[in-house]
Amino acid sequence: MTDAAVVPKKRMSPRKRAALVRYIQYAVLVLVIVALALVADWGEIRRAFADLDIASQLFPDVILIALKNTIFYTACGFAFGLALGLVLALMRLSSVGPYRWISTGIIELFRGLPALVVFLVLGLGLSLAFGVQPSNLTIVTLALGLVGGAYMAETIRAGIQAVPKGQYEAARTLGMTHTRAMVTIVIPQAFRIILPPLTNELILLTKDSSLVYILGLSLDEYELTAFGREAMNANANLTPMVTIALCYLLITVPLSIVVRRMEAKSGRAR
Amino acid sequence: MTQTETTPAADRGAAVIDVQNLHKYFGDNEVLKGIDFHIARGEVVCVIGPSGSGKSTLLRCVNLLEEPTSGTILVDGDEITDPDADVDALRARIGMVFQQFNLFPHMTVLRNLTVAQEKVLKRGKAESLEIARTNLEKVGLSDKADAYPAHLSGGQQQRVAIARALSMNPDMMLFDEPTSALDPELVGDVLAVMKDLAAEGMTMMVVTHEMSFAREVADKVVFMDGGVIVEEGLPADVLGNPQHERTQEFLARVL
């Protein structure tokens, strides 16, 4: 600032100007937060969102039934989706034309449809088509698997293509068959590459598992969202929603941490 | 299968690799224009030539990493270009070393050496481990058995790649510019391992730019340019007294 005093006409240096702009941004941010805090009705917020009496009634069912079911539905859907995605990806990369067309068709179809539509069509359609009503778990697994698998197929395909061609050639040179080379050498490396996007997909499926409510569930089939919605209506209060929101974070945040660890570990090996 | 008989004689009967009238197109581009080429058991053949001359493609045709467009390749008398040939069994008998090493990065050095022994040759764990350790010692890297490839220098990686190929007990070895991706000070170690191999009587086909290696170790030097073999013969003749104008030009540039 002494410079400015000595040479009053000179404009501020770009770096000083950037620092000033940054301080202004911080100041505005603080002002907005303070204003919101002053305007908000904290008593009402606490009653509507954080009623401890209502929250305590939710336990232990919110954990033992709702959280458990969310994790279970997601795990089933992800497992099926991963297997389906791998098969679709390999078909997509196949030299056999019909395999490529079929896989492209399935991927485009289920990537393009809203998950809700898939749930509905499977929930109503399977019984009409085959005359047997599959369990809700079957429908969740199929619906989440088809939607997730379509996305994962493209991710897996990109991962396989990202493994250097020399890896496949080296494996073949050692006498491995095409299948052996893919299973032992290429696919394990592909999965290392695509671990972050696959985790993303798992987190998306965790949230999509809430769509199962459309099937009509019995009490012990409730997952987090259905459970929270029911409790919200019964109490005319939003506290259950806050509770289940925290439960979702209980799943997704540790997942992110685990994957970051795995990435760091495989990063060392690469 | 013994490599003790060293017959530098180039008669067709003793040829382990016999390439006849080989053509290879990439699209409309004819990369190999009728190659006749053979290697006798125990022979070390160095293939030299400018980049784009087709020498790597020729090498890669020998174990069918590239599919020849036409022509015949016999390995140990078996016609591998025959559609009925068992290519996987053939490749297991031919070791190959790449310019870019191509070690498996998700496996330890030891696992790199044992995985194909177990999965392809169906050897037991103990046996593959023993063979792997023997070959690691041979290339002087016993202490790196549990390291991952990323933790090794380029020269060490290439020596592991050689040990990996040797662990399959191949009848012959193909080297595709094995030292071209290495820092100059690391080249010597890899060439030393290759010299040892040659001295043991291994049949070797080496695509290389290392003229001193070719002069010292090769039984035969082949000079390729523009998809044809321009000149071949003893290293002293091809490198010391080239007859063909294109060979002279090439050597003048690289030596």
TrEMBL record, chain A:
Q: Which domain of life is it from?
A: Bacteria
Keyword Membrane attributed: yes
Which keywords accompany this UniProt record?
Amino-acid transport, Cell membrane, Membrane, Transmembrane, Transmembrane helix, Transport
Q: Where are the transmembrane segments?
A: 20-40, 71-91, 112-132, 138-160, 181-199, 238-259
Q: Name one GO cellular component term.
A: ATP-binding cassette (ABC) transporter complex
One GO MF term:
transmembrane transporter activity
Membrane topology per record: Multi-pass membrane protein
Cellular location of this protein?
Cell membrane
An example of a Gene Ontology BP annotation on this entry? amino acid transport
ABC transmembrane type-1 domain: which residues?
A: 67-259
What protein family does this chain belong to?
Belongs to the binding-protein-dependent transport system permease family. HisMQ subfamily.
Q: What is this protein called?
A: Polar amino acid transport system permease protein
* Species this chain originates from: Nocardioides albus
UniProtKB/TrEMBL annotation, chain B:
Question: Where located?
Answer: Cell membrane
Give the top-level enzyme category: translocase
Keyword line: Amino-acid transport, ATP-binding, Cell membrane, Membrane, Nucleotide-binding, Transport
Known EC number: 7.4.2.1
Identify one Gene Ontology CC term for this UniProt entry: plasma membrane
Looking up SMART domains in the UniProt record yields: AAA
| Listed GO MF terms | ATP binding; ATP hydrolysis activity; ATPase-coupled polar amino acid-transporter activity
Start and end residues of each ABC transporter domain:
17-251
Would the keyword Transport turn up in this protein's UniProt record? Answer: yes
Catalysed transformations (reactions): a polar amino acid(out) + ATP + H2O = a polar amino acid(in) + ADP + phosphate + H(+)
- PANTHER family in the record, alphabetically? AMINO ACID IMPORT ATP-BINDING PROTEIN (PTHR43166), GLUTAMATE_ASPARTATE IMPORT ATP-BINDING PROTEIN GLTL (PTHR43166:SF9)
Q: Which family does it belong to?
A: Belongs to the ABC transporter superfamily.
Q: What is this protein called?
A: ABC-type polar-amino-acid transporter
The protein's organism comes out as: Nocardioides albus
